[in-house]
Specification:
alpha+beta; 35% helix; globular; five-stranded mixed β-sheet; 20 helices; 670 residues; single chain; four-stranded antiparallel β-sheet
Length: 670
């Protein structure tokens, strides 16, 4: 990317920060440890609930079971201030300026930074080598303070401490969104060792923001726009997009180890979908959008447009990307970058959101009255509520590696079927039609999905195990899988490992609980020889294809979902049965061989387009603007292709532009 140099005016505004030589070395910065929990003062809340510090701690331990209104009254949720979307939107529409009621769950260990149990803000600037003073947590006043000793609020919006608190508060709410029972219904792990994700609000000068597993961080940059300095950490859309990367990497870390363009695009789409859904979950902004759009999602451009300030400053567009598109898979068949490709899935899910609103309006309420006269605010709330479940809950059904748009579409349809088998409003048919229209599903897929079938079944196993035994530990799960290799399409002579084992408790409409789900992921690797000159300097080397599956059981041991990524090898052991099982193996091997061919073609295509390179860095950290979209790790004759450590926001530069500028094809650009 050709980056703009700071003007004299912006240089003064940013304390003479220089153009970077490297990204902020977040991993090298000491993360402030939370002090021992301090008791909060015995203070009545605004609405009159008066509790002792000890009682507050006890309530905190049970907070997930308490009504939201009570948590607010008991100060178990504390309000902070952020921009509704970003400073550009605030300037264009003052009604969408500051949100002063961003409620963050109180924790007894809150500390300077801000630092909480899952996030640590470290405001280190990789350009200047400076560390901004952190926002200071005031236990007595229960607020973060700036360097002037005053609470951080909209009056201090230009200070680094406001930026620190703002990005932290947005991330805390985003984490709650994903962990909610209407989403994943469990605690979200990170894809690295440790429990805190480092957040760097002013990582350096540049038109970018990204999630980086290697440094355990979210990095946000700043740059000069026509209206002044643009700080990506102040854009709610950008913060939420990058956090979507971190969440997906945490729950499916092997998605990162891929050469697949669709897997990279899926990462980008989940980032965009996260930004859209979290905009909808903001009550005040949702109500404003509902009123301004007349209750029509396709008219709510603020909702469908991602990163308005960023897009306006960089390209003179009113957004960076839009979810309001009609892209189909055939339209992007020749794309070599993930961002344009991701628009197909993002557009499909935005179409689903539109259709959810329309279905709600034309169906009857429980009393039998039509909802045609439902208020715009009610329609938007109902759609936001259902869309959280529709888009996020299926993530637990996805295979452990090499995910495709089709995998996600099938998971979305299956999740809907499990949650609402009768489906009186025909939401599942709507989902199938949307995915078919975008060419994500095929007519053959639709025929299979709509054919009569049982809701779920039992596995026909050689050695039955109880679900209690399977879910007890990874060792127990491994024994179950190993005893039933033939039944579960695992080659007899391949070693494999349990990639993850967890259980979830989710909810569906009217806050009704769904049965407990036990999710088991297992994985093995097959070696692939890179034969031929099309692999360039990697010719003759060996890489791997990740194989495996995700099994989801209910508490009775019934199989709710089984998504596999089969290998190309036959079973290779003693057959205990034939018939349908032999046919299943034949189909799995054919699928695995097709996967192997596709992976080789994708590697060759990425190498030919110049999109594969080594991780570049310096003593000061990874060099963000010089990172290729695909990286390679070499260990003797074995090479592993991966997504770039920087899952970045910016668009990939088109080949025609690169020819004109002479820049690397994989340089980051908007």
């Amino acid at each position: 990317m050709a980056r703009k140099k700071p003007t004299a005016k912006s240089a003064r505004a940013t304390k003479e920060r220089k153009k970077p030589a490297a990204a902020a070395p977040a991993a090298a910065v000491a993360v402030p440890a939370a002090p021992a929990p301090a008791k909060a003062p015995n203070r009545p809340s605004v609405k009159g609930v008066n509790i002792s510090p000890d009682s507050r701690l006890k309530l905190y331990a049970q907070a997930r079971y308490l009504p939201k209104a009570f948590k607010d009254d008991a100060r178990l949720a504390i309000p902070f201030t952020t921009y509704f979307q970003d400073p550009f939107v605030a300037k264009m529409d003052p009604k969408k300026a500051f949100d002063e009621q961003v409620l963050v769950a109180w924790e007894p260990g809150l500390a300077d930074g801000p630092t909480s149990s899952r996030f640590a803000v470290v405001d280190y600037n990789g350009d200047t080598g400076t560390l901004e003073p952190p926002a200071v947590w005031d236990f007595q006043g229960e607020a973060f303070l700036g360097t002037d000793g005053k609470p951080v609020d909209k009056l201090s919006a230009g200070s680094p401490q406001f930026h620190q608190v703002s990005v932290w508060a947005l991330l805390q709410c985003a984490l709650d969104f994903f962990e909610d029972a209407s989403a994943l219904g469990r605690r979200i792990p990170w894809a690295f060792e440790g429990n805190r994700l480092i957040v760097v609000p002013h990582a350096g000068y540049g038109e970018n923001a990204y999630y980086d597993r290697a440094s355990k961080s979210l990095q946000f940059y700043y740059f000069d726009g026509d209206e002044g300095t643009v700080y990506t950490c102040l854009s709610a859309d950008i913060v939420h997009h990058e956090f979507g990367h971190a969440v997906l990497d945490g729950i499916r870390p092997l998605f990162n180890e891929t050469i697949s363009l669709q897997t990279a695009a899926f990462h980008e789409s989940i980032g965009d979908i996260t930004a859209i859904l979290l905009t909808l979950k903001n009550k005040k902004l949702r109500q404003q959008l509902a009123a301004a759009s007349g209750g029509k999602f396709d008219k709510a451009t603020t909702l469908s447009s991602l990163a308005e300030e960023f897009g306006n400053a960089v390209d003179g567009r009113p957004y960076l990307r839009t979810a309001l598109n009609k892209d189909k898979m055939s339209d992007v068949a020749n794309e070599t970058g993930p961002h344009r490709l991701s628009g197909v899935l993002t557009g499909a899910m935005f179409k689903v959101l539109i259709e959810i609103g329309e279905i709600y309006k034309r169906t009857e309420d429980p009393s039998g009255e039509p909802r045609e006269a439902a208020s715009n605010k009610e329609v938007f709330w109902q759609a936001a509520d259902r869309m959280q479940r529709t888009a996020i809950q299926p993530l637990d059904l996805l295979p452990p590696a090499d995910v495709t748009f089709r995998d996600y579409a099938l998971a979305v349809c299956r999740s809907q079927e499990l949650s609402d088998p009768l489906d009186p409003e025909r939401y599942r048919d709507m989902l199938i039609d949307v995915f078919l229209g975008r060419e994500i599903l095929t007519p053959e897929d639709v025929e299979t999905l709509k054919a009569p079938h049982y809701l779920y079944d039992r596995l026909r196993l050689t050695v039955p195990h109880s679900i209690d035994d399977i879910s007890r530990s990874r060792a127990s799960a491994y024994r179950f899988l190993d005893d039933n290799r033939e039944d579960l399409l695992i080659p007899a002579k391949r070693d494999f490992f349990v990639a993850d084992l967890y259980d979830v408790k989710k909810r569906f409409r009217q806050n009704l609980p769904l049965p407990r789900q036990i999710v088991l992921q297992y994985v093995w690797r097959e070696e692939i020889l890179l034969e031929g000159t099309r692999f360039g300097r990697y010719e003759g080397r060996t890489t791997t294809m990740i194989c495996g599956g995700t099994l989801v059981f209910n508490e009775n041991g019934n199989v709710l979902s089984w998504m596999t990524k089969p290998g190309s090898e036959a079973y290779g052991g003693k057959w205990h049965s034939a018939g349908a099982k032999a046919e299943a193996w034949k189909a799995a091997v054919a699928d695995g061989q097709a996967r192997r061919r596709a992976i080789l073609d994708q590697i060759a295509a990425q190498i030919a387009s110049g999109r594969v390179g080594a991780v570049l860095g310096s003593p000061r950290g990874l060099m963000a603007p010089m990172m290729p979209p695909m990286t390679v790790e070499e260990d003797g004759d074995v090479v592993r292709f991966q997504l770039s450590p920087h899952l970045h926001l910016s668009e990939d530069k088109h080949l025609a532009d690169e020819a004109e500028t002479g820049e690397r094809q994989w340089q980051i650009s908007c």
